[in-house]
Amino acid sequence: MNNFDFKNPTKIIFGKDSIGKLENEIPKNAKVLLLYGGGSIKKNGIYEQVKTALSGLDVLEFSGIPANPEYAVLLNALKIIKDENITYLLAVGGGSVIDGAKFLSAAALYEGETPWDILSKNIKTEKGLPFGTVLTLPATGSEMNSGAVITRTETKEKLAMGGPGLFPEFSILDPKVLISIPKRQLANGLTDAFTHVLEQYMTYPNGAILQDRFSESILQTIIEVAPKVLNDPSDHNAASNFMWSCTMALNGLIQKGVPTDWAVHAMGHELTALYGIDHARTLAIITPSHYTFNFDAKKEKLAQYGARVWNITEGSTDERAQAAIDKTVAFFHELGIDTKLSDYTQDFEGTAEIIAKRFTNRGWLGLGEHKSLTPENIEEIVKMSY
Fold it and tell me: Strand, coil or helix: what is 111?
């Protein structure tokens, strides 16, 4: 196991009817900007619950943060923050709204030339404007980590940012919110969380026995509850385990002491930027070809995953590893998630070359757990996903 430091300061308030506890978490003298997306929270009752809890505070609102948080939209919110002297942000939504809040938290205190520097120059935010979250769509784990991904439509870019100053102060997780989430979004959430674990687990054995077991238990839980959540999101036990699995998949715990990959996300972000494909679905597109291309480097861990998660115990290491890839693809299909780029667009010719060139232009010449994947390798992996 590798050496590591671990600190996660986010307070989690988990459980049924927990949104009412919001009033105890924000300073009474705060001037709050309430951030949310397309307005679904006004249809499912969450907005009223939040407004009731905030009734004693000075609150302004900003809505319309899209599914891939858009830089230009967020700049409008940033203007409100500065013009109105906002002192606290509250994100009510899924990962996109929370990621948007993280960008705004950083940008509100950034003194550089342009807020885009935070993303383009990969500036780590040490101190941001304080914020909390009310999670309405389990998927990304953004409610308990310090990372975010922001889209810039005009340049067709999707870049990551983060830093120790961007942990939410608190996050409220009420499993009852699943009742109002469309089945497509539930499937996306299951896929997203599952792939988050794989990115931190599917590398090579390094003696981190407990970390492996943590990861495998999250994967097993997602597999077990997936059909229950999709068929009946009002199943409280299934919803609770799904929501907590999404949080645990990316709150930093399972990546400590182990090598991590994240090449699937790097390529997937480019597919979303180019075609607007749902983030989770881009991960399902890239994962099989990435593991196939890097089969020799990953086969020991793939075989372990196959045995412990899918009960694949027969055959050689290579056979078990290949069976594990096949099982993963089948699981995505069972969720209703297609796993080829051609399933989403017929305009895919040249995509691999565009993505490889972007990595080259950014000077990012090494991806994967060994930092050994070149832009040429990325081009081949993306082509395999067609």
Answer: coil
